[in-house]
Amino acid sequence: MLHLLEYWAARLALFGVDLLPPAAASRWAAALGSLWWTADRPRRRVAISNILRAGVTNDATEARAIGRGASRHMGMVLVESMKSALVLDDPERLRVDIPGDVAAALEDPDRGLIVVSGHFGNWEIAGQWLSRYKPVAGISRPMTNPRVQKLALERRQRRAFRMIPKYDPDPGRFLKLLGDGEILALLVDQHARRGIDVPFFGHPAKTHTTAAMLHLVARTPLTFLVCRRMAPMTFELSLSPLIERARTGDREADVEAIVRTLNARLEEAIRRDPDQYLWGHRRWRESRGDRLDA
Amino acid sequence: MDADGTADVLVRLRDVLRDSAVEEHDWDAVEAETPIESLGFDSLTILDVLYDVEEEFGIALDPKQVVKTRTVGEIITLLQQNGA
Predict the structure, then answer these.
(1) What is the ipTM metric for this complex?
(2) Beta bridge partners of A86
(3) For A155, which of A38, A75, A198, A217 is 20 to 30 Å away at the CA?
C-alpha cells in the first residue's frame, strides 16, 4: 500500500513538473530542495560536517549556506534531468569542451570509453548528452519501491542512455559492453565498502576501484567528466584529457594512482562550485567525532 | 609434465586464483572442467584476477575473448594461445 502511495505521489510530482515551464519548474524544485534541507536534520548534520571537514570553508554559517544551496541544487537536478530534451540540443544551454583524444575515442565505434564523475553538477544531463556518440550505461542501485523504480527508469533512460543494476550475476558485463564500444559511466564518490582508502579533501575515504581496474585490465580509455550549472537549465560540460596509467605489475599501486587522480579532479570541481555537490552522503564513515550540531 | 603444458598452466593459474581472489574457495579442486561461474567472481573481483593472471603469465588478454570463456580449461587455452 505504501509503495502504491509513493508511486502516485511520484506520478503527481512528475505531472506537475511536466506542466510547468522550465524556469518555474526549476524554481519549484529548488524550493523543495530548500524545504528538504530544513526538514531532514540528520542529513543536514552530515552535510555541514562534510563541508567543514573538506575545508571548503571553516565557517559554520557559510557551511550551512553551502549545504542549503547544494540541497536546492539537487532538487533542480531532478527537474532538469526530466526536462533534459530542452538542454541537449541547444548549444546555448549546453556548452561542451572535449579534448581531441577524448573526441577520437567517442567517435570510434569500436572503442569503449570509461567516463567517471561524481554527484556534482548535473551528471544525468551529461550521461544523456554522451549517448549521442554511442550507447551509455550508467549504474544505479535498485530502489526499494519497484513501481517508483520503473517510473524512474522510464524517465531517466533517454536516447541511448540506460541504467543497469549495481548488482548482476554476470561478472563480465562491464568488459562486454566496453568491448562492444559502449560508454560505461561511473560515479565514484560514494562510500565503497570494498574500495580502497584514498584521500578525498585530505581525509581517507573508501573509494570505488572499478573504473581504475577496467582501465588497467580492459585497456579502455578513461576520462573525468564535469557538468556544472551556469544558470537554470544551462550547463558547461567538460571532459578531461584521457587519464592514462601504464601497468607496473603492482596492482594496488596502479589502482591507487588512478583513483587519486580521479578524486583530485572531483575535488577541483567541488572547490569551484561547492553548492553543486551532494554533501549529504556519509563519505567519511570513520569520522564520527567532528559532527557539528546543526 | 604433460606434452602441451596444460597441467603446468593450471597449477600456475590455481596459484594466482588463490593469491588474488577474495572469495573462499577450494582452489586445489579447480580443474579444467570447472565452470568459471562456480568460482564466485563478481564484476570487480574478476578484474583483480585478470590483472594478476596477465602479470603472472606476462601476456595481455583480449577482454572480448575472456568473457566468452565458460570453463577454466577455456581460459587455459586462451592463455596458451597468447603464449603462456
Answers:
(1) 0.90
(2) none
(3) A38
